[in-house]
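are you around this afternoon, could really use another pair of eyes. what follows is a protein written twice so to speak, once as letters and once as structure tokens for the fold. i want to understand how the tokens follow from the sequence so walk me through it. anything you notice is useful, everything is just below.
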Amino acid sequence: MTTDMNYPTDQVDQPTVSYVAPATDQRIEQFRDEINDLELKTPADDNERNLMYGGIGLMGFAIVVILAGYWGASGSAIVGEQMPYLLSGGMLGLALMIAGAALFVRYSLSRYLRFWLVRDIYEQRTQTDRVVESMNNVEVLLRAATRPRSK
């Protein structure tokens, strides 16, 4: 026992902890190899992009159809003469608008969700590496703490 500023203290050998740096490059290569082993077809990005632009085009065309129906119906004050314009311009335009919006949302979300899924997998791998590294450090500390001490 030694005294330091009149306080008795026990000098205990501090266990040495060997820090193992994560092999991120190796894990990234392993991740790429595992993805390649899945033998998945690369998604046809051009086709999805074309369908997304087709949805935008359908919504634009729907606006033109609705405006054409309004223009045709506005020339008559008789409701019976306005009905064909309402049906052809209004209802068809509304159907085209819904179809275009569905195409746009479906294909724009698929691109986003694909990116999100790959990013989530990458983050989970990184988190798993951190947990394994921490567990290895705890194991080293426990081994050092439970080893027999010389007297």
Q: What stands out?
A: The chain has a mean pLDDT of 80. Residues 79-146 form the longest helix (68 residues). The chain is about 75% helix and 5% strand.
